[in-house]
Amino acid sequence: MNRVRSKEDELSFPHTRKDAANAYLEGLKECTKYNIPETKPELPVREPFERPIGDPDDPEFKRRVAQAQKENEEHERKREQARQDQGAWENRRILYDQIVYLYLAQPAADEEMRELAAGALPDAMVKVLLDRFQEKGGMRQPKLDTAATPSDATPFLSDAKRRWLLWLSLGILVIIVAASLWRGLRHGRGQRENAG
Length: 196
Hints:
Number of helices: 6
Largest sheet: none
């Protein structure tokens, strides 16, 4: 039986939480298209650069200079790749955490989160999400007995404030992703200009 949702149902926190979780899960599903490392990569450490010393006309000196430049460029390429991997890893972690914090809020809906994640993500990502949820204190919360809760109880946050916080967090996420993409595009344009 399909029940028609009222305007109040559509604006309730459990309903908006589910919608937001689905949006974040779509973002996590998008992450599977990229080769994002499981752990946050470290930036490569550079040995102190030693400039070759010698006669600029000597072929051996020119070879050492060319080798030093090649090593420097290779190190910078690896470092930039590590920076991009760190950014992608961080953005994915933010998506995991947004879902976790949505479901740490009352009323508890641990099973709903698990079902949504299992329907949208590969098993390995579901495990990461559930581990992160448990690490933050989830899956230990007792479910609220709504029958025992007085109907006139005042919630911690009104539905309007919850919606506002939800949209604020979505906006922040969009800004973070847009800034990362813009930085990547700008960096790619700089590389093309340097190559040309």
